[in-house]
Amino acid sequence: MARLLSPTGWLVVALLVLAGLTLGYCAITRPVRDAAAKAEASATLSDGRTKAGQDASAVRDGNDAANTATLNDVKDAQDEVRHAPAADRDAVARRRLCQLNPGACAR
User: Fold this and answer.
1) Is pLDDT larger for residue 2 or for residue 69?
2) 3-state secondary structure of 90
3) Whole-angstrom distance, CA of residue 55 vs CA of residue 90
4) Alpha carbon distances (Å) from 25 to 15, 18, 34, 80
């Protein structure tokens, strides 16, 4: 019976088989790695959106509270001016304006 391949030929065949197995392994596992990386990126993006939404909500709540406080102060000032005696209305209005907007009054 004649030899099919020399020892060098068998080495070449073994290296080719090893290279084929390595490439096959990489071809199979790459989509899995890519999917895992994509899922992690999506989770990070989702967490970022959640945090941004929470931050925006906190800013909105603070702004709403400030607006409500300002509206209440203005309403109280208007009520005080309306209920002040006629002779004192101008002074009361100026005093309340200076309380609401200190920059509008000369000091």
Assistant:
1) 69
2) helix
3) 43
4) 15, 10, 14, 82
